[in-house]
TrEMBL record:
Keyword Cytoplasm: yes
Catalytic activity: NAD(+) + ATP = ADP + NADP(+) + H(+)
Listed name of the protein: NAD kinase
Cited function: Involved in the regulation of the intracellular balance of NAD and NADP, and is a key enzyme in the biosynthesis of NADP. Catalyzes specifically the phosphorylation on 2'-hydroxyl of the adenosine moiety of NAD to yield NADP.
Binding site for NAD(+): 43-44, 113-114, 143, 151, 154-159, 178
GO terms for biological process, alphabetical: NAD+ metabolic process; NADP+ biosynthetic process
NCBIfam families hit by this protein: PRK04761.1 (NF003406)
Enzyme Commission code(s) on record: 2.7.1.23
Species for this entry: Pseudoluteimonas lycopersici
């Protein structure tokens, strides 16, 4: 079966060279007209591709030509069509963030990895956490806190001592970053449909920013996070190196 492929490159020398070679072999196609998107770069470029083209609903096959490639397959150009035919899908549902700022603005964004709140100054953030409208933690004093998806749980979340979540487990991780009080609170694993709401308790003296993947909003006073109900994306992986196996393997790395 003939597939229309749109090749997208991160702009590095390696990815640009690969783009030229692949388009010479398979033709050039716009993302809107393609059956499959092939992203050439690292994980950062994959996230950029999902944010830019995720609404098209086209499956994305990534090939690593960047620094980090957890969401990517190995780069090989000679057997691409066969790999696409054999590729296994991983369906991801992003987080939807709604942030209210000190100026009264409301900012919406999506996150395929995590939404994180971080202190903007040398002073620790003071936050309240509500789950589904019910107060759960009256005051968290910390450098920050995040909500991570299973696909993102091996990234920043894991570096902050959060749990690695199995793909398809229908849960998210709520993980503090350098918590000071309560000192022993290590976070929680929540059902994916839970609404997590953070209230900044002292936004003027202790300002906080919110970041959905790479989209930062500064001087937030309240942030609500929930699983997006109207958006999914499909990533394609080589069968021998699929995303579920990668997430599992990360739990056994010393």
């Amino acid at each position: 079966m003939t597939r229309r492929i749109a090749f997208l490159a991160s702009g590095t020398d390696d990815s640009s060279s690969a783009l030229q070679a692949l388009e010479a072999a398979h033709g050039r196609c716009k993302p809107e007209e393609a059956d499959i998107l092939v992203a050439l770069g690292g994980d950062g470029f994959m996230l950029q591709t999902l944010h830019r083209h995720g609404a098209l609903g086209k499956p994305v096959f990534g090939m690593k030509l960047g620094t980090v490639g957890f969401l990517m397959n190995h780069y090989r150009a000679d057997d691409l069509l066969e790999r696409l035919e054999r590729a296994e899908p991983a369906v991801l549902r992003p987080l939807a963030m709604e942030a209210q700022t000190e100026s009264g603005a409301t900012v919406h964004s999506l996150a395929y990895n995590e939404v994180s709140l971080l202190r903007q100054t040398r002073q620790a953030a003071h936050l309240r956490i509500d789950l589904n409208g019910q107060p759960r933690l009256d005051e968290l004093i910390c450098d920050g806190v995040m909500v991570a998806t299973p696909a993102g749980s091996t990234a920043y979340n894991f570096s902050a001592s959060g749990p690695i979540l199995p793909l398809g487990a229908n849960v998210v991780a709520l993980t503090p970053i350098a918590p000071f009080r309560p000192r022993r609170w290590r976070g929680a694993v929540l059902k994916a449909g839970t609404e997590v709401r953070f209230k900044v308790l002292d936004p003027y003296k202790r300002p906080v920013s919110a970041t959905a993947d790479s989209h930062e909003v500064r001087d937030v006073v309240e942030v609500a996070i929930r699983e997006a109900t109207d958006r999914t994306v499909t990533l394609l992986f080589d069968p021998e190196h699929n995303l579920e196996e990668r997430i599992l393997s990360e739990q056994f790395v010393a």
